[in-house]
Write a structure and sequence with these properties.
By secondary structure, the protein is mainly beta. Helix content is about 10%, strand content about 35%. It has a domain of about 40 residues. A hairpin with a 2-residue loop joins β3 and β4.
Amino acid sequence: MLIQIKHDDDRYDYVKDFMLDVLIETGAIAQFRRSSGWVRIGVDPIRKPRSEKYAGAERRTGNA
């Protein structure tokens, strides 16, 4: 899936969805477009990448 982005220098481009997290983390883009409209990096809420593993107790029993 392609996502429209806006660079800091006002250039527009399309990138594959798996590249979006890296572009956000590195500060390479200023905005990206969702179905609800443009999202401004550092202004609008975005999901944080899941980089940490769950540290809590295991609650799954394995018996489904």
